[in-house]
Amino acid sequence: MPADSVPSSKPRLRFAPSPTGPLHLGGARTALYNWAAARAMGGTFILRIEDTDRERSDDKWLATIFEGLRWLGIEWDEGPDRGGPAGPYVQMQRLPLYARYAERLLAQGDAYECFCTPEEVEAGRERQKAAGGRPMYDRRCRDLDAGRRAALRASGRSASIRYRVPLSGKVAIDDLCKGRIEVGCEEIDDWVMLRPDGIPLYNFACVVDDLEMGITHVVRGEEHTVNGFKQVLMFGALGAAAPQYAHIPLILGKDGRKLSKRDAITNILDYRDKGFLADAVFNYITLLGWSFSGDRDVFSRAELLERFRIDEIGKSGSKFDEDKLLWMSGDYVRRLPRADFVAAARPFLRGLVPDSAFAGAAGFLGNLLGCYQERVSVLAELKDKLAWAFGDTVTLDEEARGKFEKEPEARAWLRQYAEHLATLPLPPSFPADRAVADAQFLLPTPGGTAPDAIASAFAGPSRLEHDARAFTEGLGVKFGRFVHPVRAALTGTTKGPGLFDCLFLLGKERALARLRAAASS
Ligand code: GLU
Hints:
Elements: E1 12-15, H1 25-40, E2 44-47, H2 60-72, H3 95-108, E3 111-114, H4 118-130, H5 146-154, E4 160-163, E5 170-175, E6 179-184, E7 192-194, H6 202-212, E8 217-221, H7 225-237, E9 244-248, E10 251-252, H8 268-273, H9 278-286, H10 301-307, E11 318-319, H11 322-335, H12 338-345, H13 355-360, H14 362-370, H15 382-386, H16 398-406, H17 410-421, H18 434-439, H19 461-475, H20 479-491, H21 499-519
Parallel strand pairs: 1-2, 8-9, 10-11
Antiparallel strand pairs: 3-4, 4-7, 5-6
Glutamic acid (GLU) binds next to β8.
């Protein structure tokens, strides 16, 4: 009896997290596959909150889960915050519905009241185990007559409701991932559907909701396979077809064992905070069980949706490999248009570059960041790497100090070079002249070309290099020796972008101050 208003002709898929923690990698993958399948089939994607485990659920996780999904770009069509024809989408708001279904199953004889205390249930299990059987509920309430039930109730006991699993026969799932799987009914416990307080347990609420919400396909972790059998039985009792299930393999850690906290973050938003690009994380997660084609790992969402099919999800567990995720993040960073890269970097530069600076220095920051677009995998690397470009002074790291001290005449070279540079049209140091900083769009973008020299008023990197070569000739010093102390003095390190890009970016005041400081150190 699904709600009349739920359209049944189109595929309907759902992600049904329990708010017992943040969105982790496994949950994100489940959400992503259901979302992708829904979108690829032109169907509907639903977010349903399964919060009936009252001890473990906490509403504080809802916002985190929503935020994690949204960060990944996984938008839902129906859900707690959006409403929809099958709402409410939070299980604790659907209790009367579960009560009605429980009544129906009781009336049909597919469920029964159980008055056992937890201790009695446990003792029964132990007895079965000791007798060499399966540790299951001993079914002592399965066939109580009405009189006995009334007496137990009168004695103050309250009833939970159990599903009456057939004692023989088989239940099968034609799983989209695993193929046909089946189990003997004798292996399935008479599971509890509803607690005495009227709160349903997972399997029961899940079936009611999948039915009421018109769910057609369910992609979920293979740890739910056993639940799948219970659910199929109950769908049958309700005279309905179960959704098509795909129980997909677990994500494994590098060592081939179940993914643990050591292998991956436990909150998908940690990737955001570490400066991974959402598109890269999304792309990477997609590959944890599915492949695009042959040797292509990087693809757009549109390309994914053209190809994604549930029955092509792999049958063997895929390993989470953080190095590959880092590589992919770097790949996405490199592909970003410069302006998008600057915008994405912005929150990661707080404390180094004031937010206000972004307004008047698109060129300067674009150039500076552009020098690093090929050099970082995650945006959180930027702040340390860029620090040299700000402030009047710079501290030489050990290696740079070594290079500097190796040249006995370095101080004299730098003094003279500073005097020389003072005569050249270097741009002013950021943020002295915002208009200039804004116009400095002159460094090549990765893989592209751009005008080299500042055509108009200022000397660009290649003119600076050309000039420095002539300068060292005049000095009688090999260019290759000269550049090391200069780089050390200007940037404080031995690594980084091209030296004359650095000089250009530092601008006149800072470059001269640093050369002079090193010369008199
Ligand atoms: N709430 C369940 C979980 O988080 C959902 C399982 C299902 O998709 O049926 O594992």
